Amino acid sequence: MDKKTNLTKSIPDLMEKWQRYKRGLKGIKITDWCISSDYCFGDPDKLDVATFTIFPIDCMRIINREIKENLPHDIKKVKQFSEKELNYLKNSKYFFNISFVIENLKYAFNEEKARKEFSDTLKAYETMNIDKNNESIKERHKQLVEICNYLKQKSHSTKKLSQMYFVAQIVSTIMEFLLIKEKGRNLRWCSDRGHIASFLDGIMFTLVPVYLHHYLKNRVIDYYIHLPLEIKETDKEYPYDTFIRVPDIITGVMSSLVFTDIGLTVQKEKHCHVLSEILVIIRELLLSPVII
Predict the structure, then answer these.
(1) I want to staple 54 with a disulfide (CB 3.0 to 4.6 A). Which of 66, 96, 101, 125 is the partner?
(2) CA contacts within 13 A on the Cβ side of 25
């Protein structure tokens, strides 16, 4: 079986970092993986950044408890990080973070190509021998129709499409990596709430399995991915908010980076503390940034 993945081709030294991370998990029984993600897109005063945090699904209860104890707030609610918070970010062995700094995100979306992809997917979907009465399948079919119709509208938002498209493709490449390299078979994704997750009734959650199937090329067929159908911005309760806190903090710091003639700086003092104290995390992220 061809074990090359889009993620390892895009980030040449990824496997070296991944093996170092795995050595830190020695002694932990790992049956599968979870991805949590957070994004900062469209803020004129910040960089466009997306962070994806991978951790063992078997440790979710422990991680949930530890984050609540050590990182009780999202970055926007923190005035200054405590030593306890900084130490947890620095020393926790559970998290493998991949952060993308993106230039000209709108150009990452090829509208003509996407229109053909969505149209072809819809045609293939309608000819497949599947249970059309299944509510989940009916919802996915409805979303595929909706995005095809949306692209025909003159008023459609290329900005939102490019953001959603980028996230869906990156999550798919990470899942491909976990299925091929780690033999994962039951993956989970916890996305941040916001306009990307709720765009067109959560269309990106329908697109992820489509892209993943394309990337796998039938190399793995016995797998399951757990995805929410939609995450509304107005939802007061979201069971995965705790797990998103790590990528939320990293995204907050990364998006505040300012590139100057003498090096990197950040916009706020609280970001500076994370940048200066958590050198391991930030250095890992900056060694292989993916600029689109």
Answers:
(1) 96
(2) 20
Cβ distance 234 to 194 under 8 Å?
no
Contact residues for 130 (Cβ-Cβ < 8 A; gap 6+): 137
Q: Could you tell me how far CA 243 lies from the centroid of its own chain?
A: 12
Structure tokens at 242: 């705790």
| Pairing, β 263-266 against β 257-260 | antiparallel
What does the alpha-carbon distance between residue 274 and residue 279 come to, in Å, rounded to a whole number?
A: 8
Q: What letter would DSSP give residue 34?
A: E
With cut-offs at 50, 70 and 90, classify the pLDDT of residue 41.
Answer: very high
Whole-number Cα distances in Å, 217 to 55, 172, 259: 25, 13, 40
Per-residue pLDDT tens over the stretch 100-154: 888 888 777 788 888 888 888 788 777 765 555 666 677 777 888 888 898 888 8
User: How crowded is the C-beta side of 132, counted as CA atoms within 13 Å?
Assistant: 7
Range list of β-strands (E), 57-194 = 96-102, 186-191
φ/ψ bin of 223: left (φ > 0), alpha (ψ from -120 to 50), beta (otherwise): beta
Judging by beta carbons within 10 Å of its beta carbon (0-12, 13-18, 19+), is residue 236 exposed, middle or buried?
Answer: exposed
β-strands 96-102, 48-56 pairing: antiparallel
Contact 76, 195 (CB under 8 A): no
Neighbours of 287 (CB within 10 A): 10
Cα Rg, the chain, nearest whole Å:
19
DSSP state of 219: S
The DSSP H or E segment spanning 165 is: helix 158-181
